[in-house]
Amino acid sequence: MNTLHVDVVVIGGGPGGSTAGTLLAKEGLKVIVLEREQFPRFKIGESMLPMVRELYERLGVSGTIESTFIQKHGAHFVTADGKREYMYEFKNAMDCPYGYAYHVKRDEHDQILLNNTRKAGADVRERWQVDDVLFEGERAVGVVAHALDGDPTPITIKAKLVVDASGRASLLSKKLNLRKADKILNKAAAFTHFKNVKRFDGKHEGSITIGCFPGGWIWVIPFKGDVTSVGAVMHHSYWRDKKEKPEEMFKAAMADCAPVKARLEGAEQLMPVMTEGTFSYKSDRFSGPGWVLCGDAACFLDPVFSSGVLLSMRCAEEIVKLAVPALKKDKPELLTDQKAFRPYEQRMRRGMGTFWTFIYGFYDEAFIDIFFRPTNRFRMMNAISGVLAGNIFPSLKFKARIWAMQFVVYMNRRIAKSRGIAMIDRASA
Fold first, then answer.
1. Which of 324, 350, 376 is the last residue of a domain?
2. Are 52 and 309 in contact (CB under 8 A)?
3. Same domain for 42 and 156?
4. 117-138 burial string, b = 16+ CB within 10 Å, else e?
5. Does 428 fall in a domain?
6. CA–CA dist 407, 394 (Å, integer)
7. What's the total number of domains in the chain?
8. Which residue among 319, 350, 381 closes a domain?
9. Predicted TM-score of the model (pTM)
10. Do 58 and 124 reside in the same domain of the chain?
11. What is the DSSP letter of 137?
């Protein structure tokens, strides 16, 4: 079997893998990125957050992203009956220098990032499958992989570090039995694309809408042009009780949210309804001797606040910060310590923690009651906008505003209980 020697092998060419590959290659390291699919390829997760623009700038793709995709200036939330709604504008976000993000077609977006990885000097191979991660004792030392097109003969790729950025399919997470599903956030999604969905006027043409309904929530994501992504994230209990096929489930969800239903009137569906399930999970640990999990391979959050791509790219950035000093000094043994990437894991778990708080809150009526009628006392509205903008490493002042909101939610629940008003837990409804 042929053997190739590199500094780092990255499994997966999505946003996390391409970001890691680009940043490592720019440091002069020998990097190979192995991607099973041929780009461009369809993928959901089309709504970006403003703070991802900082990473686009670092990667050198800001201009291309800006000219290719529609601007997203805010996040509009609305109840099923349309009686309560609120537009959080990113220009009001605390500690965020970016007033807008983008809505992207992921086939184009991810292709831009992966092409940039090649340009940076990484060896990018599409239609290559990683068959196994090689270990010597507890230490990862490389992978076995083969081309899916052409000569299928496996090769061994020896590496000082293995970065698993293969997303929800995570080879390492499964091999080491690290993944734990979040049973509370056990959801499934049904989604498709439409033409001629009604949009907001002016700068909010590209803003996302999140519509609540009894079984979960709906996204409406406008793209540049006249195509819009629409999907419903549903509790498995809702899906199970309806006992319908995906197309019927999707229609039932739209019918249960009057504001979204109205926007779809006269729209043309462009493709069959597709589905994905079991959205949320965490890994027991994100790293070990010679290996590290990046982005969705480590953890995946309910997508209600569109955090997936930002978190994957932040993970890659934090991994590179720790890996480069050891690799450039040619001291890969520094990466074989069980604690080598612990600072990365601790920092990212803290960053994800704010999103987890908001995600659980979104399925809690006491939280929603405050979320749909925010006050800017103590700048709480600015702090909420900051979370929605993707500020995952907040200042102490920022955190204080979030703690204030959590206290208000707590008091709201206590007051409702004292008055005999039920605060429904929508997570298991």
1. 350
2. yes
3. yes
4. bbebbbbbebebbbeebbbeee
5. no
6. 18
7. 2
8. 350
9. 0.93
10. yes
11. T
Q: 102 burial class (0-12, 13-18, 19+ CB within 10 angstroms)?
A: buried
Taking the CA atoms of residue 103, residue 106, residue 112 and residue 114 in that order, the dihedral angle to the nearest 10 degrees is 140
- State the virtual CA torsion across 315, 319, 321, 326 in degrees, nearest 10: 180
Q: What is the mean pLDDT of the chain?
A: 91
Specify the CATH number for the domain of residue 308: 3.50.50.60
* 50 and 144 both lie in a single domain: yes
Question: Burial level of 157, CB count in 10 A (0-12/13-18/19+)?
Answer: buried
Distance CA 341, CA 153 (A): 33
- Model pLDDT for residues 272-324, shown as the tens digit of each residue: 999 987 668 889 999 999 999 999 999 988 888 889 999 999 999 999 999 99
* CA–CA gap between residue 52 and residue 57 (Å, rounded): 9
In a domain? residue 245: no
Q: In which domain, by residue range, is 363 found?
A: 353-418
Integer Cα distance of 44 and 304 in angstroms: 13
Cα dist from 290 to 25, 195, 336, 342, whole Å:
18, 47, 5, 13
Two tokens, residue 216 = 């979960």
Beta bridge pairs of residue 233: 189, 217
CA angle 226, 231, 232 (to 5 degrees): 155
Q: Is residue 91 classed as helix, strand or coil in its secondary structure?
A: helix
Q: Contact 21/31 with Cβ under 8 angstroms? A: yes
**In the block, residue with structure tokens 């060896």:** 123
Residue range 214-218: average pLDDT?
90
In a domain, 189, yes or no: no
DSSP assignment letter at 185: T
Q: At how many degrees (to 10) do helices 15-26 and 106-120 cross?
A: 20
